[in-house]
Every structure is written in C-alpha cells, then in structure tokens.
Write a structure and sequence with these properties.
mainly alpha, two-stranded antiparallel sheet, 12 helices, signal, Cytochrome_c-type_DH
Length: 329
C-alpha cells in the first residue's frame, strides 16, 4: 500500500547559490524513498508538546535564524562572527535533499573527521561549523542552544533509515571534465545566474531588519573562511548542481552542467580576486585525510596547489587509485 506523502513548499522560496530559507511552515521537505518518486516530508506539527519538543523547536529556529539568536548581535548570545545562517548551506533546516542534508547526522556521529584528524562528537561538529564558516567561537557543550541543536537532529533522524541510505542524503556527484575549472568562465556564469541575488561583488542582501541575510555573502569580510567545506571547489560544485539557480532546479534535476558548476565554484572561491576572513588555522594534519580539492600543501602526491584547487582532478584521482589510496572529495 502506498504511503501518504506530504509535499514540501521549499521550491517556491527565493534562493540563489546559498539560501537563507527562513521558512516557518509546518511541513518541511525531506527525501525520496527507494520505492516512491515523491518526496517524504516532515510535519513539524508532530513535534512533541513537552520539554523535549520545546528544545526541538528551538533547534529548528536556530537552524533557520542562527544569526538572529547567536550572531554578532544575537539575542541569546554572541557566538557567530557573521550573520549567515545554518540553513544557507543545510537548506530547509537541514532536511532538503542534496543540500548538505543533516537527517542522519544524529546517527552518524561520533565519526572520524580528517580536518581535525580525530573522532568528533556531533556537538563538536556543530562547533566546527560555528568556528569556521561562521568565524565564531564555540557554544558551551551544555548550553541551551547546543542541546537544542542536538535535540532537533535527534528528532529529524527518525524519518530516515538508520543506515543513512536514502535519496538525497548526500550531494549529487560530479562527473569530472578533462579540463580545469575556470574562474574566468565562472565569472560570466555567476553574473548570469547568481549576481541578481548575491550582487556583483558577492556581498549578499540583508533581510529587512538586518538580523541576517535573505541572500548571504559569498566572499568578503562576512563570508565563510578558507578551510570551510564551501571553499573547496568540488564540494561547492556538488552543492550547486542540485540547488542553483533556485528557480531553475528541483531536487536531483540540475539546470547547469557539471563543468559550469565547477566553474562557478572556482570563481566564487578565487582568492586572488576575492578577500575572505583570515582562517584560524589550516587543517588536515594527516595528509592522507586531506580532500584532493583542499588547496593547501603539503600533499601526499606531487600535484600543485593550483591543480588541487581547480583540477583537472582525474589525474589526481588516478594517481591515488594507482597507489591504492582512497581520494577524498
């Protein structure tokens, strides 16, 4: 018997490149099942009416309006160094498919992270994001806000298989071209597809009360740091493929080609023309755990920083495979 499906409303929201997605509707888009072409949704009206449910609701609010609560002028604390929100990357409060989906995060942690070269708890991973893309300081592990984040992740985890195998759990893969990604080509594509919301200078657009962004910045003083996942060309391209331009895509149905999303990511992350906050540290102390598109030496191979950043990536992957190593990206 076919299960009932609730269709989410995120596709009508105004999003380009990194969506603020400050929706408060009770139906939140989740993911496809293996036996159904529709998208399952989470009905947030089902959140329990008890102290745990209160924490879940606050956690979702923190995902959607992170800067309002804990940003530079946050009403509950000043932990972020910028006014971006978690949902800018983890769209629809972490439940949108192919958009750094977080619905299995509660089940997937603790896990090893190459950036720190150690096993992290989920709370440590939350602070990892707060400190890097948000240029902030860590939340106390016993704070109301950290408990709310973890409560929300626990609640949304019940909607997906415990093995984490569901449609949209990970971003779409990229088929790598034989040429390097080009910031020059990417600039033209950015002007055509992205600048209308994020501005020609990537500055983004504040919301009405300037507590956060309707369209967040893509570089500059208030953008994400080097070392953030979005600063890696492959990783950002995987995200862009299914999510942008917002009005020309639907989950799993890209508008731009793989080369085009790589080019846009190359332009957005071109540090020769775009300033960024100074990183607190360059990560990945273990070279073997370093993603191939992380453009800071030393590497376990002899490819240049330029090629690690922009490609072509096929020779790097082939070299790693020849040596019996697993290329991370």
């Amino acid at each position: 018997m076919k299960k009932t499906i609730l269709i989410g409303l995120f596709s009508a929201l105004p999003i380009v490149v990194f969506n603020s997605c400050n929706t408060s509707n009770s139906q939140t888009l989740a993911n496809k099942t293996a036996d159904d072409d529709s998208y399952i949704t989470i009905d947030t009206s089902k959140i329990p009416d008890d102290p745990f449910g209160e924490s879940v609701r606050y956690g979702r609010e923190l995902m959607l309006k992170t800067a309002y609560y804990i940003g530079p002028n946050g009403i509950k604390g000043k932990y972020l160094g910028n006014k971006m929100n978690c949902t800018n990357c983890h769209q629809d409060a972490g439940t949108k498919p192919y958009a750094f989906n977080l619905m299995s995060s509660h089940d997937n942690y603790p896990q090893y992270r190459g950036r720190e070269n150690k096993v992290l708890t989920l709370a440590e991973r939350v602070n990892n994001c707060i400190m890097r893309p948000h240029s902030g300081k860590p939340l106390p592990l016993d704070s109301k806000e950290m408990v709310a984040f973890l409560s929300y992740f626990k609640w949304i985890s019940k909607f997906v298989p415990k093995d984490g195998d569901f449609k949209g759990a990970k971003n779409l893969e990229i088929e790598f071209p034989d040429v390097a990604a080009s910031p020059e080509r990417g600039k033209a594509l950015f002007i055509e597809n992205c600048a209308r919301c994020h501005g020609n200078n990537g500055e983004g657009q504040y919301n009405a009360d300037k507590s956060g962004y309707t369209y967040p910045p893509l570089w500059g003083q208030y953008g994400y740091q080097p070392g953030s996942s979005m600063h890696r060309v492959i990783k950002q391209a995987q995200w862009l493929k299914s999510n942008m331009p917002y009005d020309k895509v639907s989950p799993g149905k890209p508008y731009l080609t793989d080369l085009q999303v790589l080019d846009i990511a190359a332009y957005v992350n071109d540090d020769s023309v775009h300033d960024r906050p100074n990183p607190k540290t360059f990560d990945y102390p273990n070279k073997m755990g370093k993603p191939i598109d992380y453009a800071h030496s030393p590497f376990s191979d002899n490819f240049s920083e330029q090629q690690h950043k922009y490609g072509p990536y096929k020779p790097i992957i082939a070299y790693w495979k020849k040596n019996g190593w697993k290329a991370v990206y």
